[in-house]
Amino acid sequence: MKIYTRTGDAGKTGVIGGRVDKDDERVEAYGTVDELNCYLGQAMSFMDPEKFGDLLEDLLTVQHELFDCGSDLALLKQELRPFKVTAEMVDNLETWIDKYDAETPDITRFILPGGSRGSAALHICRTVCRRAERRVVTLARTQEINVEVRRYLNRLSDLFFTIARTANFREGQTDVEYVRSAEVFRRKK
């Protein structure tokens, strides 16, 4: 099989159920999800498997689920096949958020991105995830989507924030608080 097909030379690309312009909102949405998956792979490469084995296992699951998100976003009509991203996948993210959040110290202020290399890379994932979510919101205004993808991306950015803090904590790095704001978060109970 050849990698190049030449079918996109005229500015169109194949999606599930047809062809669209390469700058179509649908392509922008799943393309940003693909970009996020690449950044996630990079972030994972910065994490020591001895310290982060559990986290890396969960993030590998996220990588597969991001492919599912992209697949659902590339689907022109739901009648062509069932959606892959489910509410249970969103629930699973919430379970991980709670688990990793319990490991980290309380926060009361906004956190500046950075600290350990893994944490900094995970903060990049968080912001790219937010951009992917915005692209999906834009797409949903005019085209049919799996709404669970939007929910998944919203929750995933929260997971990236939480595990960025976990990465710092496990590396012995202190999160840097944004000191020019008042306390805006409640302490854990």
UniProtKB/TrEMBL annotation:
InterPro entries: CblAdoTrfase-like, CblAdoTrfase-like_sf, PduO-typ
UniProt-listed GO biological process terms: cobalamin biosynthetic process
Species of the source: Paenibacillus chitinolyticus
GO molecular function, one term: ATP binding
This enzyme's EC code(s): 2.5.1.17
Keyword Transmembrane set for record: no
Pfam families on file: Cob_adeno_trans
Protein name, per record: Corrinoid adenosyltransferase
Family: Belongs to the Cob(I)alamin adenosyltransferase family.
Keywords from the UniProt entry: ATP-binding, Cobalamin biosynthesis, Nucleotide-binding, Transferase
Catalytic activity: 2 cob(II)yrinate a,c diamide + reduced [electron-transfer flavoprotein] + 2 ATP = 2 adenosylcob(III)yrinate a,c-diamide + 2 triphosphate + oxidized [electron-transfer flavoprotein] + 3 H(+); 2 cob(II)alamin + reduced [electron-transfer flavoprotein] + 2 ATP = 2 adenosylcob(III)alamin + 2 triphosphate + oxidized [electron-transfer flavoprotein] + 3 H(+)
Pathway(s) of this molecule: Cofactor biosynthesis; adenosylcobalamin biosynthesis; adenosylcobalamin from cob(II)yrinate a,c-diamide: step 2/7
Domain Cobalamin adenosyltransferase-like: 3-167
Complex formation: Homotrimer.
